[in-house]
Amino acid sequence: MARQPTRSGRDGRPIDTEKLDRIVADARRNSDQRAAGYREQALKLFPWVCGRCARVFTQANLRELTVHHKDMDHDNNPPDGSNWELLCLYCHDNEHQKYEEHMAALAAGRGGSIQSSGAAETTHRPFAGLESLLKKKD
Fold first, then answer.
1. Which of 1, 15, 66, 68 has its C-alpha lying 20 to 30 A from 33's C-alpha?
2. How far apart are CA 93 and CA 47, in angstroms?
3. Taking the mean position of all CA atoms in its chain, how far away is CA 60?
4. Is the pTM of this model over 0.90?
5. How far apart are CA 115 and CA 123, in angstroms?
6. pLDDT tens digits, residue range 75-110?
């Protein structure tokens, strides 16, 4: 029994899945090559220590040390390494999680728009009455 070709949801025409597979494979290969280039360079430039938790790495566990792009742009790879820092897998994941949470907070708190000041204004003052409470104890 012949398999029906995958069709586009937009116009119903058959999708060339082999072409898509080639495109994805090329993109992965290019990404791996780009990553290998700056990773090798970063490992030569910097000591094998996580920039956050200070865990020291050796050849045996070096695969757990990653290159983090400080500006989150994986195509910004200056030869001096000024946009990189070496982070362990856990700290690297944490950095990206913090970034995602920050971006989500900006979008939610500002309705998706960016204010001209660049900073969100807070209204909650948890210690507003603390001074008067401390003065009562005297």
1. 15
2. 20
3. 26
4. no
5. 16
6. 898 989 999 999 999 999 999 999 999 999 888 876
Q: How far apart are CA 102 and CA 95, in angstroms?
A: 11
Contact present, 91 and 51 (Cβ < 8 Å): yes
Three-state SS for the chain is CCCCCCECCCCCCECCHHHHHHHHHHHHHHHHHHHHHHHHHHHHHCCCECCCCCCECCCCCHHHEEEEECCCCCCCCCCCCCCEEEEEHHHHHHHHHHHHHHHHHHHHHCCCCCCCCCCCCCCCCCCCCHHHHHHHHC
How much is the pLDDT for 5? 64
Per domain, the residue ranges of the chain are 17-105
Q: What is the pLDDT of residues 20-75, one digit of tens each?
A: 889 888 888 877 666 668 888 999 999 999 999 999 999 999 999 999 999 989 88
Choose among 94, 93, 71: nearest CA to 83. Answer: 71
